[in-house]
Write a structure and sequence with these properties.
elongated, 12 helices
Amino acid sequence: MSVDFSTILSTTKPKERSDEFIILGALYALKSDKSPAPVGAIKTLLDLHRARLPTNLSTSLRRCKAHVEPIPGQPLRWKIKPSGIARLREITGLDLPASTDEIGFGCDVGFVCALERPELEALRSACGTDAAWKEIGEARYTHVYRESALSTRSGKVLRVVATASTSMGLTAAAIATTQLIMQFRPRLVVMVGIAAGTHSGDKQFGDVLVADPSVDYNSGKVVDVQGIRDFLPDPYPIGLNPRLRSVLQKYSGDPSVFQRIRDQWGGELPVKANRAHIGPLGAADQVIDDHSRILEITSHWRKLVGVEMETYAVYRACHESPEPKPRFVSFKAVCDFAANKGDSWQAYAAFTAAHFAVDFLKTEWDALWPSS
């Protein structure tokens, strides 16, 4: 259990309480190593305990940069570093466990993209300007991680971390997702990107495919049946959390979010309005440029909404992660139909998927986690 602010203050006489001590004590009591705290929360805590308030709290926080760090967003929030907790232990003589030592989530959303461009680039733009993101994490890890803040419609500020795989495909996506989960423990992992759609359901370029379930369509057994080669699938499908699925259902028939996205796009648009399609999304380490292959896959999954190369790995990494396990979802927009491939719709598809994901989180976070 963490130590409260009153106990921290009691270790030092009022005249000996430096700005550094007060700031570190307040940030520790607010458990900012787990959930960064805005300046207003720090002031409220100090007022409540009648503790001396530094002359300029924001300036004092910046002077403690060796032990605290700012988290971008509105409002700006502050996080105590492990070195800050160690320094506070040294000053107080108390055994101060980090709140993140207690098993719990370390951030709200972990984004995974297969490609730096156009997918991660579109996501970063949908969340805010480049200035709103900063690189975090340790250089000993392979991937580059960026952190930002996302404000929901209800005013909650979400801590989000994003990364891209080192390459396309299931293996790279599984590694990227696993390392993200182990380092940052997100409450929700979101795969964002582009995919090939099936022709069923009158899909358009830019329609968002929500993988429920994700299917490894290449997993199974190849057999010989009377001289004819056949394939017996063993896909081990992984579906969405039931609450997440229920909240998403209304987007299948709601074009309003897509109209807002279309209004922000400055290029060519598909003729018809975009929609969300929730259903089986196939994944395998192969780029398909032959519609007959899609017909083979749909013979086993008649409601297949599309195919791509990463989502199954992301879902499997989340499904088999340590507790607390994150929920997970994949939003991939249609950039082609697995035949006569080209890249003319990739930018629009990446833009649509990213903006849909961000709009969904801003609108529905309270419906998913009302008490977070």
